[in-house]
Amino acid sequence: MAEIDGFFAHKRYALVEIDPSTGGFGRAVYDCLVEGGREVILVMVAPTEGARQIAGAVYTSVAEAPGPLDGVVLNVEQDPDRMLREVQAAVGKGVPRIWIENRCEAHEAVEYAVAHGVEVVDNACSLLVLDPHHIHWFHRKVLDLVGKTPQVQHQAAD
How far apart are CA 49 and CA 84, in angstroms? Predict the structure, then answer.
Protein backbone atom coordinates (compact mmCIF):
# COMPACT_ATOMS: atom_id res chain seq x y z
CA MET A 1 0.00 0.00 0.00
CA ALA A 2 1.37 3.42 -0.96
CA GLU A 3 1.53 6.16 1.63
CA ILE A 4 -1.09 8.21 -0.26
CA ASP A 5 -3.64 5.48 0.43
CA GLY A 6 -3.84 6.58 4.07
CA PHE A 7 -4.50 10.23 3.25
CA PHE A 8 -8.28 9.90 3.38
CA ALA A 9 -8.40 7.51 6.36
CA HIS A 10 -9.71 10.25 8.64
CA LYS A 11 -13.09 11.88 9.22
CA ARG A 12 -13.26 15.62 8.40
CA TYR A 13 -12.08 17.28 5.18
CA ALA A 14 -12.46 20.67 3.54
CA LEU A 15 -12.81 20.85 -0.24
CA VAL A 16 -11.57 24.16 -1.63
CA GLU A 17 -13.06 25.23 -4.98
CA ILE A 18 -14.49 21.76 -5.62
CA ASP A 19 -18.19 22.14 -6.44
CA PRO A 20 -20.26 18.96 -6.09
CA SER A 21 -23.24 20.57 -7.79
CA THR A 22 -21.54 20.72 -11.19
CA GLY A 23 -21.29 16.94 -11.56
CA GLY A 24 -18.16 15.29 -12.89
CA PHE A 25 -15.00 15.68 -10.84
CA GLY A 26 -16.49 17.79 -8.04
CA ARG A 27 -19.41 15.46 -7.49
CA ALA A 28 -17.17 12.38 -7.60
CA VAL A 29 -14.77 13.73 -4.95
CA TYR A 30 -17.62 14.88 -2.69
CA ASP A 31 -19.55 11.61 -3.05
CA CYS A 32 -16.49 9.42 -2.46
CA LEU A 33 -15.74 11.25 0.78
CA VAL A 34 -19.33 11.22 2.04
CA GLU A 35 -19.94 7.60 1.04
CA GLY A 36 -16.75 6.71 2.94
CA GLY A 37 -18.29 8.13 6.13
CA ARG A 38 -16.42 11.44 6.10
CA GLU A 39 -17.73 14.91 6.88
CA VAL A 40 -17.11 17.40 4.08
CA ILE A 41 -16.84 21.17 4.49
CA LEU A 42 -17.07 23.23 1.28
CA VAL A 43 -14.89 26.30 0.77
CA MET A 44 -15.70 28.44 -2.27
CA VAL A 45 -15.22 32.15 -2.95
CA ALA A 46 -18.36 32.28 -5.08
CA PRO A 47 -20.49 29.29 -4.05
CA THR A 48 -23.25 28.13 -6.32
CA GLU A 49 -26.78 27.69 -5.07
CA GLY A 50 -26.37 24.00 -5.86
CA ALA A 51 -23.33 23.74 -3.58
CA ARG A 52 -25.31 25.37 -0.77
CA GLN A 53 -28.19 22.94 -1.30
CA ILE A 54 -25.86 19.95 -1.14
CA ALA A 55 -23.64 21.00 1.76
CA GLY A 56 -25.70 23.55 3.66
CA ALA A 57 -23.10 26.07 4.76
CA VAL A 58 -20.30 27.02 2.37
CA TYR A 59 -17.34 29.03 3.66
CA THR A 60 -15.21 31.52 1.73
CA SER A 61 -11.87 30.40 3.19
CA VAL A 62 -10.35 27.54 5.14
CA ALA A 63 -9.89 29.98 8.03
CA GLU A 64 -13.71 30.31 8.32
CA ALA A 65 -14.37 26.56 8.37
CA PRO A 66 -15.59 25.62 11.85
CA GLY A 67 -13.73 23.18 14.05
CA PRO A 68 -10.68 21.05 13.38
CA LEU A 69 -10.02 19.50 9.97
CA ASP A 70 -8.20 16.24 9.25
CA GLY A 71 -7.27 17.38 5.76
CA VAL A 72 -7.82 19.89 3.01
CA VAL A 73 -8.16 19.18 -0.72
CA LEU A 74 -7.39 22.23 -2.86
CA ASN A 75 -8.36 22.84 -6.46
CA VAL A 76 -7.35 26.50 -6.75
CA GLU A 77 -6.29 26.93 -10.36
CA GLN A 78 -4.40 29.91 -11.78
CA ASP A 79 -4.19 31.73 -8.45
CA PRO A 80 -1.00 30.84 -6.56
CA ASP A 81 -1.52 33.73 -4.11
CA ARG A 82 -4.90 32.37 -3.02
CA MET A 83 -3.43 28.86 -2.89
CA LEU A 84 -0.76 30.11 -0.49
CA ARG A 85 -3.34 31.97 1.65
CA GLU A 86 -5.52 28.85 1.94
CA VAL A 87 -2.51 26.69 2.84
CA GLN A 88 -1.42 29.25 5.44
CA ALA A 89 -4.95 29.20 6.89
CA ALA A 90 -4.88 25.39 6.99
CA VAL A 91 -1.51 25.42 8.77
CA GLY A 92 -2.90 28.00 11.21
CA LYS A 93 -5.83 25.68 11.99
CA GLY A 94 -3.45 22.76 12.61
CA VAL A 95 -4.48 20.76 9.53
CA PRO A 96 -2.05 17.81 9.32
CA ARG A 97 -2.45 16.95 5.61
CA ILE A 98 -3.09 18.81 2.35
CA TRP A 99 -3.86 17.41 -1.10
CA ILE A 100 -3.35 19.74 -4.08
CA GLU A 101 -5.09 18.70 -7.27
CA ASN A 102 -3.31 18.64 -10.61
CA ARG A 103 -3.37 21.82 -12.73
CA CYS A 104 -2.75 24.02 -9.67
CA GLU A 105 0.26 26.32 -9.38
CA ALA A 106 1.36 25.63 -5.83
CA HIS A 107 5.15 25.59 -5.47
CA GLU A 108 5.29 28.26 -2.75
CA ALA A 109 2.27 26.80 -0.95
CA VAL A 110 3.83 23.33 -0.94
CA GLU A 111 7.11 24.67 0.45
CA TYR A 112 5.24 26.57 3.16
CA ALA A 113 3.17 23.56 4.21
CA VAL A 114 6.09 21.14 4.28
CA ALA A 115 8.23 23.63 6.22
CA HIS A 116 5.44 23.73 8.83
CA GLY A 117 5.27 19.96 9.22
CA VAL A 118 2.19 19.33 7.08
CA GLU A 119 2.03 16.24 4.86
CA VAL A 120 1.40 17.27 1.24
CA VAL A 121 0.39 15.47 -1.92
CA ASP A 122 0.92 17.84 -4.84
CA ASN A 123 -0.19 17.77 -8.47
CA ALA A 124 -2.27 14.60 -8.27
CA CYS A 125 -5.94 13.81 -8.73
CA SER A 126 -7.49 12.77 -5.41
CA LEU A 127 -9.70 10.28 -7.24
CA LEU A 128 -6.61 8.08 -7.68
CA VAL A 129 -7.18 7.19 -4.01
CA LEU A 130 -10.85 7.98 -3.46
CA ASP A 131 -12.32 6.20 -6.49
CA PRO A 132 -10.85 2.76 -7.09
CA HIS A 133 -13.11 2.21 -10.10
CA HIS A 134 -13.20 2.99 -13.79
CA ILE A 135 -10.42 5.06 -15.32
CA HIS A 136 -9.09 6.12 -11.92
CA TRP A 137 -8.27 2.52 -11.03
CA PHE A 138 -6.50 1.99 -14.34
CA HIS A 139 -4.60 5.28 -14.10
CA ARG A 140 -3.47 4.46 -10.56
CA LYS A 141 -2.31 0.97 -11.55
CA VAL A 142 -0.28 2.37 -14.44
CA LEU A 143 1.35 4.91 -12.13
CA ASP A 144 2.12 2.15 -9.62
CA LEU A 145 3.61 -0.07 -12.35
CA VAL A 146 5.93 2.60 -13.72
CA GLY A 147 7.00 3.82 -10.28
CA LYS A 148 5.24 7.19 -10.53
CA THR A 149 2.67 6.85 -7.75
CA PRO A 150 2.21 10.31 -6.19
CA GLN A 151 4.16 10.64 -2.97
CA VAL A 152 3.39 12.34 0.33
CA GLN A 153 5.91 15.10 0.93
CA HIS A 154 7.20 15.52 4.49
CA GLN A 155 9.40 17.93 6.33
CA ALA A 156 13.01 16.74 6.16
CA ALA A 157 14.28 15.15 9.35
CA ASP A 158 16.89 17.18 11.22
Answer: 27
Domain 9-145 has CATH 3.90.550.10: no
**Which residues are CB-neighbours of 12 under 8 A, at least 6 positions away?**
38, 39, 41, 67, 68, 69, 70, 71
Give the containing element (helix H, strand E) for 121. strand 119-122
Residues 13, 73, 93, 56, Cα dihedral to 10°: -50
Alpha carbon distance 80, 145 (integer Å): 32
pTM attached to this predicted model: 0.93
C-beta atoms surrounding 104 within 10 Å: 20
State the Cα–Cα distance between residues 38 and 33, nearest whole angstrom: 5
Instruction: Give the pLDDT confidence of 7-64 residue by residue, as tens digits.
Output: 999 999 999 999 999 989 999 999 999 999 999 999 999 999 999 999 999 999 999 9
| Domain ranges for the chain | 9-145
Instruction: Decide: 72 and 61 in contact? Cβ < 8 Å.
Output: no
In the three-class reduction of DSSP (H, G, I as helix; E, B as strand; rest coil), residue 132 is classed as coil
